[in-house]
């Protein structure tokens, strides 16, 4: 099963200048809880935003970077695909849940294959970003979704911040 997991603000931004434009421990804990023990699929820029390999997860990166291909040879937890069709073929062979974690172009490229969405809605009124092609927007257009769980998290330390976790599944055709 292919799942997308991401956090977005009210304007659907998922990142800004290669980083998350917020730091919410509850969202990070939610991401960890959902993805631990599962492969995580990402583009090169998303991978570069990490301080290193995340524990207990296989990292699958779509890139043409020769440097990352060399790095992947040194660790079993990093796999590189340089072609989207190769990645799609690998995804089709997976029996366990695989999480696509970004960026926006990878979400757009795989939206026909996704079966489940894990969305964190972030409400932070103090953040403003210019909306353009590089702002990290992901416009999802998945016809019929069923919300399978919902929870709201309020960060009591920063009273103006809240997030809502939605888990959705693609409806089965009759």
Report on this model:
This protein has 5 helices and 8 strands. Strands 4-3-2-5-1-6-8-7 form an 8-stranded mixed beta sheet, sandwiched between helices. The chain has about 170 residues and is an alpha/beta fold. About 20% of the residues have low confidence. Helices cover about 25% and strands about 30% of the residues.
Quick recap of the structure?
By secondary structure, the protein is an alpha/beta fold. It has helices at residues 25-35, 44-48, 66-73, 84-92, 104-110; strands spanning 2-8, 40-43, 59-62, 78-81, 98-102, 116-123, 145-154, 162-170. Strand 3 (59-62), helix 3 and strand 4 form a beta-alpha-beta unit.
Q: Spans of 5+ residues with little confidence (pLDDT < 50)?
A: 126-162
Instruction: Give the strand tally.
Output: 8
Order of helices and strands: EHEHEHEHEHEEE
The fraction of residues in strands falls at: 25-35%
Overall 3D shape? globular
Q: Helicity level, as a percent range?
A: 10-25%
- Backbone CA Rg: 16 Å
Largest sheet: 8 strands, mixed
Rounded to the nearest angstrom, the distance between the terminal CA atoms is: 19 Å
**Strands side by side in the biggest sheet:** 4-3-2-5-1-6-8-7
Number of helices: 5
Structural class: alpha/beta
Mean pLDDT: 77
């Amino acid at each position: 099963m292919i799942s997308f997991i991401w956090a977005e603000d009210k304007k659907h931004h998922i990142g800004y200048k290669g980083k998350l434009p917020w730091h919410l421990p509850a969202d990070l804990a939610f991401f960890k809880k959902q993805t631990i023990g599962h492969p995580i699929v990402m583009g090169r820029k998303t991978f570069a935003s990490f301080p290193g390999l995340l524990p207990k997860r296989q990292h699958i990166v779509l890139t043409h970077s020769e440097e990352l291909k060399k790095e992947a040879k040194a660790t079993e937890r990093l796999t590189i695909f340089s072609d989207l069709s190769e990645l799609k073929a690998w995804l089709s062979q997976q029996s366990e849940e695989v999480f696509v974690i970004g960026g926006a172009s990878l979400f757009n490229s795989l939206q026909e294959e996704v079966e489940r969405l894990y969305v964190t809605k972030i409400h932070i009124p103090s953040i403003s970003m210019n909306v353009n092609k590089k702002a990290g927007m992901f416009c999802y257009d998945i016809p019929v979704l069923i919300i399978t769980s919902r929870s709201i998290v309020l960060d009591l330390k920063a009273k103006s911040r809240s997030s809502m976790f939605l888990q959705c599944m693609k409806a089965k055709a009759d």
